[in-house]
Amino acid sequence: MSKRDDFTNNLRLIGRWFAPGLGVKRWYFVILAGVTLLGVGLAMFLLGLYRTDSTNPLLLEILSYASLRFLPRVLRALIFGGLGVGLVVYGIWRLNNSLLRPYVRPGRPLVDELANYRRRERGPRIVAIGGGHGLANLLRGLKQYTRNLTAVVTVADDGGSSGRLRESFGILPPGDIRNCLAALSNDEQMLTQLFQYRFSGAGNLDGHSFGNLFITALAEITGSFEGAIAESGKVLSVSGRVLPSTLHNVKLVADMQLPNSPNQVRVEGESRIPQMAGKVQHVWLEPNDAPAYPPVIKAILNADMIVVGPGSLYTSLLPNLLVHDLLGAIQASRAVKVYVSNIATQKGETDLYSCYDHVRALEEHVGDRLFDVVLCNENYEGQLLDDSQWVRADEKTLADSRVRCADLADGNHPWRHDSKKLAETLIEILDEYTGPLD
Asked: Cα(384)–Cα(416) distance, rounded to whole angstroms?
């Protein structure tokens, strides 16, 4: 690149600092006003000096040349004014670069970082409800559009590392919350990888993730589980909030129809439901009157969009919606309510389910017409895992006027949603209902 091109790019970069919405111009003008007043004061001093020492011809000649009196007055004003503004802008730009250099990603101009931050700061208020890797994947895409994100996570998990910590320390399960915090992190590099690191080998740490242990330790230090989540969010610099659906120690219970038998069996515990052979008939929480976490209610009532899913139908989504006042807040909210159907069925929960079956199962538990939009995948290309099938939009699904189909599948892992495609489609839906919020 030539010096001329480099100079042109620098001028263009400086000009972008005056783009609308960055919140920068006002402070430039404040500084410029201060410098102008300082210049007026200096001019008054020089004028007084000029008048008192008018008998000194050498001083008069120096002042005359310094003030460019040999040029027309308008031209002198433009020269000094232009130099002043240019120096102020250049000085502030270089000062900002020096002060913020430790916090700016390499290769990303500071003005780009600021513009992106401001855009997401003004983004729509979105509440995402669910659990597991599906919710984390959704958040990873939505954080590119807004910082006003609230993830509402189930606390019914009783398996794996979360279940062991729940049993040993009496805290709510941190696993799904950890996944969402990592997904919302602004820097999913070393610190986030550390948060997601899972110990292996012999001993008591086997199977535990560092993030679960970290949240457990913070719960002991802060004295509350919600305090531990908030502090973890600060450590990871998350774009948004992660909240538990309830702070009560709830247990998921299911009635299941046994295969080739008219009998039903009752299964207690979220982790045991997918392992039991049979078809889920009905699920509920014990106790069934656990109140929702109050900040969750506030976020739902203030939301522009509420997204339920993707995630395990009976063990990730319904445990949130079965918290009665949380469900009541969703029903009362004026937000656009979207259900995101899974791409593939889940063994032990939704075998052979179509998109229609997912919606029917949800609304049988929480009431009809809860959602304004039902979002289904229409890309059935690729190889699924051996124990799953495509969740298809069949004739019954397409007969529902709320249904919208789109290509949402991840090309490398077709049983998962592509976070970018999913977030883009949801923002398009929100714009159709409310108009662009920018």
From this structure: 10
